[in-house]
Design brief:
By secondary structure, this protein is an alpha+beta fold. The protein has one domain (about 5-70). It contains 1 helix and 5 strands, in the order ββαβββ. The longest helix is centred in the middle third of the chain and has 13 residues, at about 25-35.
Length: about 70
């Protein structure tokens, strides 16, 4: 098995390992991903969801505005 992680700059891979010979490393890898937050997993932290509506909030003219995202491209 080889684990790949990608971000805006590119990707990086772990060393290849056999999950049958190194079960502890496999379990540690899976648990590491399970314990990561949404931002660490690559989700955009500026996008929020409430009441089945996806939106971002911006500051403009001294007040906060909510821009609803109708479609995802």
């Amino acid at each position: 098995m080889r684990v790949w992680v990608f971000d805006r700059l590119g990707g990086i891979a772990s060393d290849q390992f056999d999950i049958n010979e190194n079960g502890l490393r496999f379990v540690s890898t899976v648990l590491g991903f399970l314990w990561m937050g949404e931002a660490q997993l690559g989700f955009d932290p500026t996008t929020m969801t409430a009441e089945d509506e996806r939106f971002i909030e911006i500051e403009r003219n001294g007040s906060t505005e909510r821009i609803v995202i109708d479609e995802v491209m």
